[in-house]
Amino acid sequence: MSVEIEVGLENAGKLKVSPVEGQNLDLEPEKNTVSSIRTRLIIGGIALLAVVFGLYLYFHNRESTDDAQVDGHITPIAAKVYGRVSKVLVNDNQQVKAGQVIVQLERGDYQAAVDEAKANLALAESEARSAGVDVPRTSETAASDTSSAQAQLAGAQADLLRAQASYDQAQTADLAYAQANVDKSRANAQLAQADLARYLPLMEKGEISKQQYDAAKANADATASALNADEQRLAQARRNIEISRAQLDAAKARVLQAQAGLASARADIKRVAMRSADAQAKLAKVDQARAQLAAAELNLSYCDIVAPVDGVATHKQVEAGQVVQQGQGLMVIVPLQDVWVTANFKETQLRKMRPGQKAYIEVDTYGKTFTGHVDSIAGATGAVVSLLPPENATGNFVKVVQRIPVKILLDPIPANEAVLRPGMNVVATVITK
Description:
Blueprint: H1 2-7, H2 19-59, E1 62-72, E2 75-78, E3 83-88, E4 94-96, E5 101-105, H3 108-131, H4 135-205, H5 210-301, E6 304-306, E7 311-314, E8 323-324, E9 329-334, E10 339-346, E11 358-363, E12 368-377, E13 403-410, E14 425-431
Helix pairs in contact: 3-5, 4-5
């Protein structure tokens, strides 16, 4: 500008401007623009990397699924006995307490059954007392007779043992001894006869004296007499065997007689046992009558249908005057204070999932997120435990990613903040680190 002032307007055309200076003046705005864009790109790239890194850190150890819902204990209420409904004491979706009467059935028929059972019990007790009066006296008499018969049998058995011993001795030892003596005497007699036969020719030839021959003959006669005596004793031993056998048979007969007496005494005991069994049967009838009374009273108590747990009565299907059958469903009770989340994760999401890991539950109804932890992982996929599991043995196999139920327990939620009901849809996220 100073140059322009000095030369004036008339010398403006003569003014020379350096090419370098003119070029620098023209590129200065362009350089500033490029530098600004480059700076913005670098800052944007850094911001983008920070966002990507933050998202990676956020989703790196998280597994989420929207295939999840709230679950709880659904307690069905059913009639245990047949009857007509006299009162329905709850409305649909009403809060109830455990033990609270919710439905009443007419009690007339069941009260009559209780009265009849009481009368049957009184009759059975009377019959049992009557049946037990004669049992002790009869038992004592039968016991005395049995003891006497047992003593007689013991004596007869002792006689039998002695007779058996005598018979065995006569048949074995005595007979064997007599037989041995006979064999010995026969051998001696034969030897003496042989000697006598040898001595006779020698005496006739004069080689031995008449005295020696007479001595041999006397010995032969003596051995023959001894043989005869031993044979008599053998015959007596055989007769003794017969006598012992007769005594043994007599002892056996006495044993049989004593056994018959004992059997008769035991028959009396059996009669006592029969009377005692009859008394026991009457006592059993007493127990049976008591059981029938207890069953009748139990059926009477079933006329008052009570809530087994605290919760909300819902799905009511009963009205006063309705006739209900045994086992017929009347309503269900849902304990809202005891709920959990069942999240069906894909099998590829369970690699790092373990019980105890922290979880976040986003409830569609409230738009809020609640905390909890993984309680357990199911032992099989949902398809396997379904009503109609897939059958791949036919060859029609198509690989489908399976889902496995995961049970998530929620941390306590204040009632004024939210009430979770079974069946609500939720989004479950598990922190797997």
